[in-house]
Design a protein that fits this description.
Helix content: 10-25%
Shape: globular
Oligomer: single chain
Radius of gyration: 27 Å
Largest sheet: 9 strands, antiparallel
Number of strands: 32
Strand content: 25-35%
Bound molecules: alpha-L-arabinofuranose
C-alpha cells in the first residue's frame, strides 16, 4: 500500500537537477561527437599520446611524403606538417572502418597548404567499390593559405577514404572534411545523431570536459620555455581560437585530442541543448590513481588567473579581454556560467582543500555569484564522514561533487543514502554514477536509485550518469550511456532511464510511504550469477530467498553441479559437499539457469577463498 498525502510539501526539485557529463573518453570527442571525419588531420599524433602512434597514423602515402617539424611549420602551436613530394598523394582512413558519407549530402573539405605557384591539389573520396564523389581540384600558390572544396556524395559508404594528391611538392596541414549537416548547422560543429541524443534528454546541465581527463598531467603550458610540453594537463586556453592554432595534446585515456571540440564549442553545445554549462578545471592536485601533488605555487597562481579568465570568457562583456575573444569566435552574448567545478576525484584531501580555498577566494572576490564546486575524492560510495567530506563541511563548501560506480545491488540497497545527509551542510552534485552494466536490470536499479535522489532534492541538487559516450572500437571504460561507430549510434537501457527522469522533472516531491517493497510481476530473469575475483574459490549453501521468505533457489552441493555454467574458464567440481575451483584460472562468473522468477531477493552464500588473490 502506498500512502500519499497530497497536502504535504516535500523538497522542491530544480529544473537543472538532471544533466549530462561529457568526457572525452572512449573517443567521445574526436571520432565521436566532434564531426571531423579526418583522423590525425594535423599530423601531430606522437608516442606521447599512445606508444603505437606515429605522425602518419591513419595516413597512407603513395609516392614520397614525410612529416616535418621545423621552422617551415604553419604556426608555432601546430608543430608538425606534411611535406608531400611532386606527383605523390596521401590517403586518410578516418575512424572505425573509414570516412562515412551519405548519398546526396554535402561535405566541406579544407586544407592549409604551402606550394609553388601553379601547384594543383586534387582531392578525392572513394572506397573499395570506386568513387564516392566527383574529385575536386584546388590551385595552390605561395605561402601557407587555406583552400576549400565541397563534395556531394554520390553513394553512401562507411568505408570511405579521403585522398589528397599534389602535382608539385607541397606542404600540407589541417586536412579536414566536415559534414555540412552538423547539429544545428554550427561550423566546426557536432555529429548530428549523437548531439540529438543528448538534446533529447533535455539536460539541465552539461558537465565537461572530465573526469580524469582534467586532473592529470602537468600544468606546464605549451611553449618553448616548457619544451613544447606533451601530455600536459587539460588547460582551457589551449582549446579556443582558430582550430589550426589549438595545440593538440595527449589524452589521459590513451590517444590524441585535437581540441577541435574545445571550450567555445562546449559552451555553445550547452546553450544549443538548453543546459547550464558546468566546466571543471584542474586543481593542481592529481587524482585518478596518481597520488601526488604536482606543480608549484607559481603555476598555481597562473592557473587561478586562468580560471578567472575562463569566467570572463564565458560571461564577460565584449569589451573585456576574454569576452572579446568569445565575441570574435562568434558569440558576443555571454554564456551565463553560474557553476564551476575545481578538481575531480582528488586523492589528497588536505592538499586539495588548501588549493581549493585559494581558487574559491579568488573567484568569490571577483564573481560572488559563481558557485564553486568542490569534490569528495575518488569513489565516495562508502562513508560520508571521511576526511574529504569533513573538510568540505568544515570549510562551508557550497556543493560537493561525489562519484561512484557500483553493482546494481548496491544501488538497490542504498536508495536511502541521502535521507540522512546533513540538511545544513554542502549540497551534493552527483557528477558521476552508474551501476556496472548496460542491461535492463542496471537501468532498473538506477531508476530505483534515482527515486532516492529525487526524494532528497533539497540536498542532491545535480546528478549525471557517467560516462556518456563510447565508440565501440575504442573503448577504455564500460558501461556507457550511448554507443556508436562511424555510422550508427544506439541507446542503452541506462539512457532510457535517464531520459524518463530527465524529461519528466517534477516541481516538488510529494511525500509518500509504502508498506512494503512492491512486487514486480512476471518472470523477467531466470538466472542467478555469482562472481569471484579469487583465482581459487569454494562455494557452499547457495540460497536465494524472496522478500516474502520463499526460497527461489538453493544448492548445498550434495549432488552434482550441472545447473551451474561458467564464464571465464576454470575447473570446478563438487568435493565433500562444496563446489570447488580446482585450478588457478582467471576470475570467474558462475550462473545457475533455472528457477527464480523476478523478485526482490536476498542471496546467501558461503564462499571461501582458497588461494590466489
Ligand atoms: O567516467 C569515467 C571516469 O570515472 C572519470 O574520468 C573519472 O572522474 C572517474 O573515475
Amino acid at each position: 500500500t502506498i500512502t500519499v498525502d497530497p497536502a504535504a510539501r516535500g523538497a522542491a526539485i530544480d529544473d537543472t537537477m538532471y544533466g549530462v557529463f561529457f568526457e572525452d573518453i572512449n573517443r567521445a570527442a574526436d571520432g565521436g561527437l566532434y564531426a571531423e571525419l579526418v583522423q590525425n588531420r594535423s599530423f601531430e599524433y606522437s608516442t606521447a599520446d599512445n606508444r603505437t602512434y606515429t605522425p602518419l597514423t591513419s595516413w597512407t602515402v603513395d609516392g614520397t611524403a614525410q612529416v616535418l617539424n621545423d621552422t617551415g611549420r604553419l604556426n608555432e602551436r601546430n608543430r608538425a606538417y606534411l611535406s608531400l613530394g611532386a606527383g605523390s598523394s596521401v590517403t586518410n582512413a578516418g575512424y572505425n572502418t573509414g570516412v562515412r558519407v551519405e548519398q546526396g549530402k554535402k561535405y566541406d573539405f579544407s586544407v592549409w597548404a604551402r606550394a609553388e605557384n601553379g601547384t594543383t591539389l586534387t582531392v578525392g573520396l572513394q572506397d573499395a567499390d570506386g568513387t564516392l564523389a566527383t574529385a575536386r581540384t584546388v590551385a595552390a600558390k605561395g605561402g601557407w593559405a587555406k583552400y576549400r572544396a565541397t563534395f556531394t556524395a554520390t553513394r553512401t559508404s562507411s568505408d570511405g577514404r579521403l585522398t589528397v594528391a599534389s602535382s608539385a611538392a607541397a606542404a600540407l596541414d589541417m586536412v579536414s572534411l566536415f559534414p555540412r549537416d552538423t547539429y544545428k548547422h554550427q561550423s566546426n560543429g557536432l555529429r548530428k545523431d549523437l548531439a540529438e541524443k543528448v538534446a533529447a534528454l533535455k539536460p539541465g546541465f552539461l558537465r565537461f570536459p572530465g573526469g580524469c581527463l582534467v586532473n592529470t598531467g602537468s600544468m606546464q603550458d605549451y611553449s618553448e620555455a616548457s619544451g613544447w610540453q606533451r601530455a600536459r594537463a587539460y588547460q582551457w586556453k589551449d582549446t579556443i581560437g582558430p582550430v589550426e592554432e589549438r595545440a593538440t595534446n595527449a589524452n589521459f585515456w590513451g590517444y590524441n585530442q585535437s581540441y577541435g571540440l574545445g571550450y567555445y564549442e562546449y559552451f555553445r553545445f550547452a546553450e544549443d541543448v538548453g543546459a547550464m554549462p558546468l566546466p571543471v578545471v584542474p586543481a593542481l592536485v592529481t587524482g585518478c590513481g596518481q597520488n601526488r601533488a604536482v606543480d608549484d605555487d607559481a603555476l598555481l597562481q597562473r592557473h587561478i588567473q586562468d580560471t578567472l579568465d575562463l569566467i570572463e570568457f564565458a560571461n564577460g562583456p565584449v569589451t573585456s579581454t576574454w569576452g572579446r575573444k568569445r565575441a570574435r569566435m562568434g558569440h558576443p552574448e555571454p554564456f551565463h556560467l553560474t557553476h564551476l567545478g575545481v578538481g575531480n576525484e582528488e586523492n589528497l584531501p588536505v592538499e586539495f582543500m588548501a588549493r581549493f580555498k585559494q581558487f574559491r577566494t579568488a573567484i568569490e572576490a571577483e564573481y560572488p555569484d559563481i558557485t564553486v564546486v568542490s569534490n569528495s575524492g575518488p569513489d565516495d560510495s562508502g562513508s560520508t564522514f571521511d576526511t574529504a567530506w569533513q573538510l568540505n563541511r568544515d570549510e562551508n563548501v557550497a556543493m560537493v561533487d561525489e562519484h561512484y560506480y557500483n553493482s546494481p545491488q548496491w544501488f538497490l540497497q542504498n536508495n536511502d543514502r541521502y535521507d540522512s545527509y546533513d540538511r545544513g551542510g554542502p549540497k551534493v552534485f552527483l557528477g558521476e554514477y552508474a551501476s556496472q552494466g548496460n542491461a535492463f536490470r542496471n537501468g532498473l536499479a538506477e531508476a530505483a536509485y534515482m527515486t532516492g535522489l529525487e526524494r532528497n532534492a533539497d540536498v542532491v541538487k545535480l546528478a549525471s550518469y557517467a560516462p556518456m559516450f563510447a565508440n565501440e572500437d575504442y573503448v577504455q571504460w564500460s558501461p556507457d550511456m550511448v554507443w556508436f561507430n562511424n555510422h550508427a549510434s544506439w541507446n542503452s537501457a541506462n539512457y532510457e532511464v535517464q531520459k524518463l527522469f530527465m524529461t519528466n522533472v517534477g516541481d516538488r516531491v510529494v511525500p509518500s510511504t509504502a508498506t512494503s517493497t512492491p512486487a514486480v510481476s512476471g518472470p523477467v530473469s531466470g538466472a542467478v550469477g555469482l562472481s569471484t575475483w579469487a583465482t581459487s574459490a569454494a562455494y557452499d549453501d547457495v540460497k536465494v530467498t524472496g522478500a516474502d521468505g520463499n526460497t527461489l533457489l538453493s544448492d548445498d552441493f550434495s549432488g552434482d553441479a550441472s545447473r551451474w555454467t561458467h564464464t571465464g574458464g576454470g575447473s570446478w567440481s563438487v568435493q565433500d559437499g562444496q563446489y570447488v575451483q580446482t585450478d588457478e584460472a582467471a576470475e570467474n562468473t558462475m550462473v545457475s539457469a533455472g528457477d527464480p522468477a523476478w523478485h526482490d531477493y536476498d542471496l546467501h552464500v558461503k564462499a571461501t577463498k582458497r588461494s590466489g588473490k
